[in-house]
User: Which sequence fits this backbone?
């Protein structure tokens, strides 16, 4: 079973993982998710996990020691371990990356806060043969910490694990909407009953029962949306 270890100073963010599809995947034994409080690995009365930046500057930097202890603890079993460090400076998360991570046995998410984690954490684990380190961003905007970014990634990854989605047909259909770059192409617009709502009609072709025509119409609409988005 795929294992996910999440390291954070705000474990409560991950209560959402008890809900819905992911909650069900956990109770069904399809995924094993453990949340760890970084502060359990902090020293001293104040259990501090950050300090002022060398070279000066605003804000605080997360200290390497508690991160090293926490990551060592969750990676005791044999590898490989994929360590994902959330940072706005990371590689942009895509559907292709979600697909790749959905095949991994052990993912560790390091949710930093403040101005980031001492860079030696990335350097150290990158030098360890059992580790693959990925610095990942979910998009070009600044969050206060990696927790919400981790929730986004987990949702995208876990729904791709076999058995998690009720209807695997919808996944097969989705795979047709991936570009060669592995980017998700925008879906065609969807309609359900009633056939007329507030003066707006469902496109007639969708009611025609002509499956070839429906397919062509949907592709045309999906391309329109994709072009509009660029
Ligand atoms: N995409 C993205 C990640 C972030 C983070 S991770 C830790 C602090 C901020 N912001 N934006």
Assistant:
């Amino acid at each position: 079973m795929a294992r996910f270890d999440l390291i954070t100073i705000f474990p409560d963010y991950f209560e959402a993982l008890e809900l819905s599809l992911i909650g069900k995947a956990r109770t069904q034994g399809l995924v094993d998710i453990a949340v760890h409080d970084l502060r359990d690995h902090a020293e001293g009365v104040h259990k501090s996990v950050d300090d002022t930046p060398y070279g000066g500057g605003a804000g605080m930097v997360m200290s390497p020691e508690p991160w090293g202890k926490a990551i060592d603890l969750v990676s005791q079993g044999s590898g490989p371990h994929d360590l994902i460090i959330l940072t706005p400076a990371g590689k942009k998360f895509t559907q292709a990356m979600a697909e790749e991570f959905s095949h991994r046995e052990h993912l560790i998410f390091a949710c930093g806060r403040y101005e980031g984690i001492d860079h030696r954490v990335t350097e150290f684990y990158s030098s360890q043969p059992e580790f693959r380190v990925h610095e990942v961003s979910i998009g070009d905007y600044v969050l206060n910490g990696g927790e919400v970014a981790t929730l986004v990634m987990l949702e995208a990854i876990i729904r791709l694990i076999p058995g998690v989605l009720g209807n695997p047909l919808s996944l097969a259909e989705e795979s047709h909407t991936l570009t060669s770059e592995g980017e998700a192409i925008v879906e065609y617009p969807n309609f359900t009953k009633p056939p007329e709502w507030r003066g707006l009609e469902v496109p007639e072709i969708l009611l025609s029962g002509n499956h070839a025509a429906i397919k062509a119409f949907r592709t045309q609409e999906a391309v329109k949306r994709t072009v509009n988005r660029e």
